[in-house]
Amino acid sequence: MGVKVDVLVPLIWYFLIIYVIGFYSLRYVSQARSREGKGFLVEFLTGDRNLGGFVLAMTLVATYLSAGSFIGGPGAAYTHGLAWVFLAMSQMPTGYFTLAVVGKKLAIISRKINAVTITDLLKERYESKLVVVLCSIAIIFFFTAAMTAQWIGAARLLEGAVGVPYLTALRFFAISVLIYTTIGGFRAVALTDALQGVVMTLGTAAVILAAVAAGGGVESLVQSLAAIDPGLISPYGPNPGFTTMAWVTSFWILVGFGVVGMPQVATRAMSYRDTGSLKRGIIFGTVVSMVLLLGMHLLGVFGRVLTPGIASGDLVVPTVITQLFPNWVAGLILAGPLAAVMSTVDSQLLLAVGAIVNDLYANLINPAIKRTAAFAFACTLAIGLVIYFWALNPPDLMVWLNLYAHAGIIATFLWPLILGIYWKEANAPGALASIVTGVGTYIWFNTDWIWPYGWARPFGLHVIVLPLVISLAAFVIVSRLTRKPSPEIIAKFWGI
Fold first, then answer.
1. Are the C-beta atoms of 322 and 7 separated by less than 8 Å?
2. Is 51 helix (H, G, I), strand (E, B) or coil?
3. What is the pTM of this model?
4. CATH fit for domain 5-393, picks 1.10.3720.10, 1.20.1730.10, 3.40.50.720, 3.40.640.10
5. Which pLDDT tens digit goes with each residue over 246-266?
6. Cα–Cα–Cα angle for 285, 174, 66, nearest 5°?
7. How many Cα atoms within 13 Å fall on the side-chain side of residue 440?
8. CA-to-CA distance for 460 and 344, rounded, in angstroms?
9. CB neighbours of 449 closer than 8 A, spacing ≥ 6?
10. Residue 428: strand pairing partners
């Protein structure tokens, strides 16, 4: 299969627009260089806390809905049918839930203590260097795994749509993301997310309408799915043992409730301009999430009828799009799922860089750090190289790698963040107990050679549930048995 130049050209134009936004944001980063230290990091990692409602909504949605929602998710829907669509829709209220639960509280506290990352906030709340170290290591490790999944998804997309070899596509994507993230920082990420959110929404609407028309309507497509395998239209999927009621119900903890504790999502709540922006962000984010999630996952299921026999489910989106549209139109629409991947990767990359530069180096090693910009740029490139080498040997379905990293981050941050801002008795020993037990039991249950006794689904639930229950119990018990936070901390976070 040769390279489809007429598909590639619109994608190249899209990347050029992204570069322009990156260079536009460079002037803000350049101005912030004169501040150095924390002054530079406030701009580079939070965009000077100046996001409006629309940009807030789009950067939140675009950050969370990633290759898992646009490539891995539809790939899983291609395999498991409508059951996976039902599962995926539990993510719809994520933007509302996150901003409503922690949005205002995080914004107020982060401005008060000048926090530019979630770990910054946890450092002030618990006054523990060990909490900072553990959280930073978790961010670096799990986000590197998550970004590897995203890069794999983007390379798969370009491979399936344009016809370029996987490694060529991987290199092209890696260079593009590293350039505009490095030169523009958070402001470039937020502005490109706004553009990418619009592109994702319009592209999703166009492709699902075309897929329904090509299949003769929804009823015809569902009947065709039933003819292939009745399990494809069952709420339990082709394999009833895979999507049990207990597992499906508990899956929402991973992709719904638990998202509140994800640093890349919570950081958005630290970066909006005012309360009006927060309210508009909640409304826009919820509506856009519904359109994107339903459209892309239905496309994956309908692809089973429209393009049967695909070697890997991760290729269903580019395959269907290039089949339904002329090549140049397909190139424009494919910018949508590609945008989803890019907008997630750049946010995760900034957080991983922040964990090294701000959380570990500036907070613990050298508080008087000077050459902040050069160090941040070097770390960005170094992490990019690590991800590139990890992505050289991709798995068949990247959704599982993405969900693994997703759950690991939640096991680390959920309780220290939520209890830290809402429970006055939460203390450093409790937070440490929560992190160690949460991450430790999560890895334990996911590692076959450590725990080969069928506990990948403890009590039939998703694997994340039991680690979160254990870590919550550890947090509460240890906090109750140890010294309460100092009056200074209470005054700092509650103003009393």
1. yes
2. strand
3. 0.72
4. 1.20.1730.10
5. 777 777 777 777 777 777 776
6. 25
7. 10
8. 31
9. none
10. none
